[in-house]
Every structure is written in structure tokens, then in C-alpha cells.
Amino acid sequence: MWRITAFDLEGREVARLQVAGGEVTIGRDPDRHMVLPSAAVSRRHARLVLDGPQPYVSDEGSANGVILNGVRIAGPTAIVPGTDMAIAEFGLTFEKLPDTDAVSPIRGQTQAPSAAPDETMRLIAEGGPFAGRVYEIDDADVTVGRALENALVLDDPSLSRKHCRLRRMGQRIEFEDLGSSNGTYANGRRIAKGMVGPRDTVRFGDLLFRVEGPRGDGERRPLSPLWLWGGVAVGLVVASGIATILLVHRGDGTKETMAQLAQQTAQHLQNGKQRLSEKRFEAASREFDETLRLDPGNGEARRLKAQADAEPESRELATKVGVKAELAADRASFETATHLFAQIPKESTFRGGAEQKLGRKLAEYGLAQCKVRKWPDCEWGLVRAAEFGQAAPEQQAALKEAQRRLRKK
User: Fold this and answer.
1) The whole model's pTM is what?
2) Closest CA to 26 of 110, 224, 17
3) What is the pLDDT of residues 207-242, one digit of tens each?
4) Which residues are 86's β-sheet partners?
5) Are 184 and 177 in contact (CB under 8 A)?
């Protein structure tokens, strides 16, 4: 008799089975024997075989794999009492109980129907605390955020409790920002609602993800950071942060070849950064494309390419912010300029200049309203200017005076 228990990250029990033998299926689909409710768990994730002299577990082609005692399995692997298994954010434990005559709830059940062709869209985390994690997006609405009631829970301070809603639409993912504080971005551009497809990027707050289509559509299946044995050699991420992912048959390829590839990858990445600093965005994007051709898993190159592709539009937005701020004569005009500014990605090289220009014009507006004793507008303008980094002594003194006058009223 075996007892199998699943726990979440907080150590709370989420599922338990007690079986005498047979097969136990694990996954996100409700027809699994043990259901683990998370978008990081594949529909049909793993299978336990508890009959015979040696129980074992096998991965059913899941995106995030099955981890036994800290190592991702590459084939059917034996399990014994005390084995620690990890599936996405869940930990599973196995206990061997005294044999009884109890009938296993698994025995006698018909085998689950074979999996349909995998047509799920996926988000693959690029960098950050969730780097390499794969999240499957199906036809149902998938809400994203910090709160536990979301289908995709990402515990990161840059996300709102309910940040965004996703829905698979064929070979694309439709997204809608739910009024989040730090925004939802597609390919570096902040958008309230839109669509993304394979090879696009989407960002929730500070968390960046690559979009990948269904298996078999020509997209490369994402590699996990732990790595396989038997017939292939996988280049590991070097200490400098340059990932060289190179699959070669044993006997093929040499250390010199891998070193040369790593050098070429690093050179293209450096060239791209240089072009980006020179505001040669198309040239920068081409260099990052070359980096990704040599090293498809290079998260830094993917992030910088998204930035390079978005910079021409960011430049236009920054120009509009400057024009709007220059012509603004009332709160409504400044609010329009502020709304445009919020659409400039945080990492854009144009954001700083736009922020400085808008802050300076808000300060000028606030001081002008103080001089004509329009204290509410005076206070509003100077408070907003401070939010944009403008807080000179003259402004602080005028703000105190405005607040004193308003308190008297």
C-alpha cells in the first residue's frame, strides 16, 4: 500500500492518494487520478506505475518535467519510500504503508484516453525568479497576478493582485490588462488589450515571457535548465551569463568548437548593446537575432531585442509627451501627457528625457498657479512635478504655502 501526498509552496496539502498498486496519472486535467491545479503543470504530466517489484515514475512529455531528488528525469525512474518529487511548484512524498486487503481505487479503472495532439500555447519565463518555467495557456480564461485565486499565480511585487487576463485564440494569445499598476507589455510596448503569437514577448510588471506555439508547429521545444544524458551533450550557461546551448552527437564537436561558438555569441551580444546605445535600433535587433540564432535560450538577448524593436515607437511617444507638455495649459492637458508617458517602457532610453521634460513643465505650471493664487492647481501641479523628480527648494516652499492656504479654507 502506498500513500502519495502533494503539497504546495506553503506546505499545504493539496492532494492525497492511498493505493495498493496499479497506475496513478498526474496532471492538470480533471480526468487525472491526482490533479495539480496550476498552469505550470501539463494536462498529462506524469505517470506512476506501482505494480511489480520496483515502482517507477515516467514523464509524459510535460513542459516543466519531473524532478526526483533535485534531478530532472530523462526516462522511467525508480521511486522508493522517502523519494522527493517536484512537479512545477508542488512537492510530492511517497510512503510505503503495511499491506492490507483494501482494494486500490486505481485498480479496475479504465485507462485514461490517450492525449490529444498538443495544441496548447505556452509562456516561457525569460530571466527573473521564474526563469525557464513554462506555463500552458488553453482556451479557458487564465487570470494572472499575485493573488492565490488567479489561475497563474506569480508572487512578484511588480505584479498587481489581479494583473491580466489571458485566453488562447487559435495560434495566438489574447490578453487584457486588469488595471494593473505596472502594466502589461507586448514586445516592449505597454498595451491595455491585444494579441501575441509565437516568438513574441509579453511582460507583466517586471516579469518577461516568451510566447511559444503548439508542439509540432515548428517552434523549438523549450529546454530545461537541468540536463539530459545519453547521446547528446548540452552546453551549459557560462559564468559570464552567456548561454551556449549546443546539441551534438557524441564524438562530434570539440571544446574548441564550443568555445568559438560562445565567443561569437558574446561578440554579437556586445555589438547589439553598442548599436542600442547608439540608437541604431534596426542594426541592434539584427545583432540580437544573430545572438539568438547561436544561443536560442539567451534571455538577455531576447529582452534587449524586444527593447530594440520597441524603441522607434518609444521615441515617437517621448516626442509626443514633450509636445503635449510644452503646450499644456491645464490639468486635462497634463493628464494627457502623463498618460502618453506611462506607455513608454521602463527600460526605454527615451523615458528619462520625457520624464524630465514633463516634470519641469508641471513645476512651471504649479508655480504659475501659485502666483495667481489658484492654490488647488498650484498644489496639484507641484505634487505631480515631485512625482516626476522635480522638487527644487522654490517648489517645496510654494507647495507648503499652497497647502497652508488650502487648510485655512
Assistant:
1) 0.41
2) 17
3) 889 898 865 443 444 333 333 333 333 343 333 443
4) 67, 91
5) yes
